[in-house]
Please model this.
Amino acid sequence: MPADVFKLTVTLPLQTAREIIAASLAEGRRRGLQPLTVVVVDAGGHIVSLDREDGSGIRRVEVARGKAGAALGIGIGSGVVGERNQGRDAFLASVATASNGEFVPVPGGVLVLDGAERIIGAVGVSGDASPEDQACAVAGIEAAGCRAGLDAAG
Model:
């Protein structure tokens, strides 16, 4: 019978993802930014929820997912990934290829941490300048009562 299946453990609930998205978008509107796209993925990299504001570019979903993927794949914020790997273009290109493009090492991808600082997911924001995207992701994560993970070393 189709209903007789085991359930998966949920570490980043849909309601939390929606709260992150709403707060990220609200921060973008508060700052007067260009239309944003926000993608929230769980610790396995699967999309929990996403939203794209009217007027947001047609490739913003892929870019936002790639920012979240870079953070989740390496274990630090996507901007930190880019900073730490300046001059290592072959490495960055190889990881982007190996991840089917879900690796964009610029600011805007932020880890979602639980109370014990374990990764439960990541947020990717795209639509404005990358530092602004990152600020919106952090604001969204914190508004949802989670901790934003950028750089484990600092």
Q: What stands out?
A: Strands lie at 37-42, 47-52, 109-113, 119-126, 147-149. The radius of gyration is 15 Å.
